[in-house]
Amino acid sequence: MSGSPNIVAFRKAAHPPCKRKGPPPVTVRLSQAEYDRLKHDAGVLTMAAYIRLTLFGEGEIAPHRKPYTRKATSPSAELTMIGKMLGGLGQSEIAASLADIAGAAKIGALPLSPDVEAAITEACAAVQDMRTRLIAALGVKVQ
Q1: Which among 8, 44, 48, 65 is least surrounded, fewest beta carbons within 10 Å?
Q2: How far is CA 52 from the centre of its chain?
Q3: What is the C-alpha separation between 99 and 92, in angstroms, rounded?
Q4: Burial, 49: exposed, middle or buried (Cβ in 10 Å; 0-12, 13-18, 19+)?
Q5: Which residues have CB under 8 Å from 142's CB, separation 6+?
Q6: Span 134-141, mean pLDDT?
Q7: Cβ–Cβ under 8 Å, residues 134 and 85
Q8: Do both 38 and 87 map to the same domain?
Q9: DSSP string for residues in 13-31
Q10: Distance from C-alpha of 139 to C-alpha of 7, rounded to nearest angstrom
Q11: Handedness of CA 13, 18, 19, 24 (dihedral sign)
Q12: Residue 128 pLDDT exceeds 70
């Protein structure tokens, strides 16, 4: 979801990349066993904090840094809107109602007057519009 081209372009435009203030990060490749051991040994510490502690000792870890706290994230306004649309679509039972109408039309129990036909066409157009908007919002490619 968050990988939609529209959303990515919006985020890039809204938040231009900022220059790194500190030194560049150090990257080390580990085997899966080494990574698992490191993660286990770190315990409640973040991996970065544990590695600094192991390399430099307790007194030398950047004393000016604040303790690591993870920010609580809330869904974006777009995702919230999409969730509400999907929830409303699920609660509306449109699909079940259209299936009932199609079943009644198949067995001939539905008198197809111009008014009924227009209402069915309008309902189908509304469902197609919702589908199109959701696909566009999610950035899904239709095959």
Answers
A1: 44
A2: 33
A3: 13
A4: middle
A5: 135
A6: 75
A7: yes
A8: no
A9: HHSPPPPP-SPPP------
A10: 9
A11: negative
A12: yes
H-type helices in 2-70, by residue range?
Answer: 5-14, 32-42, 47-56
What is the rounded average pLDDT of the residues 33-52? 87
DSSP 65: S
Q: Supply the range of the domain harboring residue 26.
A: 20-73
Q: What is the pLDDT of residue 33?
A: 93
Q: Please state the domain count of the chain.
A: 2
Same domain flag for 24 and 69: yes
Q: What percent of the chain lies above the pLDDT cut of 90?
A: 6
Q: What is the pTM of this model?
A: 0.38
For residue 27, what are its two tokens? 């990257």
